[in-house]
Structure formats: C-alpha cells, structure tokens
Amino acid sequence: MHDEPIDPFNGDPADPTAGLDDPGDDATPDPLTDVERQDVLEDLADLEIYQALLAPIGVRGLVIECEDCREPHYFDWDLLRGNLRHLLNSGRPRVHEPAYDPDPDHYVTWDYARGYADGVHDTLTEGTEDEPGTPTATD
C-alpha cells in the first residue's frame, strides 16, 4: 500500500518530466544582480514604513497580482517580509499559493501603500520648507 500515487513514468527513458529540474536539487541559482538586490532592500525598507502607517488603521498586508496565475495574492506583513528576505538570501522566490478566503478589505496594493505614505510625508512636511517670497529670520 502506497501513501502517494505511483509515478507511471518511473524508470521510463521517455519520461516527459525527465528534463525538468527537481525542486529538491541543490543546484545554486544565479545570485541576484546588484540592482535586483538593491530593489529587494528598498522593498523591505518601504514595507516597514507601510506597516507602521497602515497596520494601526486595520490594514493586514499587501495584495499582489500574480503574473503567473493572474490572481491576487494576499500577504500579511510578516509573510511578505519573510518572502523578501528569502529572495535576498537565496536568490529565488518562494513557492506561493493564494491565501485561503482572505478579506480583500484588509489588504492594499503596493501603489496604494506608496501613495498613502507619500501623502502622510507631504502632510507632515507641508509648510516646513521655505517657499519663495516667504520672509526668513535673516530678512
């Protein structure tokens, strides 16, 4: 009795999957380029800001449109941070599955989070920059 299905092509020289990489292979992937590495580091830094601003208002994480399956994937803050760190350390993304029955109202896109952070930044710095024609202490 087998717990898993028997491979019908086991030992077959015409196995159609023979040329595919085994996920268990210890083959080292190509390392990230300097530009890719910098992009991941910037994403990690941005993620910290987004979480600090959005978690207190009930946002649980980010939603990303998957290029492979064309479905939205919902990631909580810690999972997304872990995925980015894994990519940084291993050079390859983790295998992903869509979340089970997430509430889309609790997730925002990267673009929304970026816009929200920019809006908060602009609000906090509004009026602190010298505007042309505004008298200064030395005038």
UniProtKB/TrEMBL annotation:
Region (Disordered): 1-33
Pfam families: DUF5319
Entry protein name: DUF5319 domain-containing protein
Native species: Micromonospora orduensis
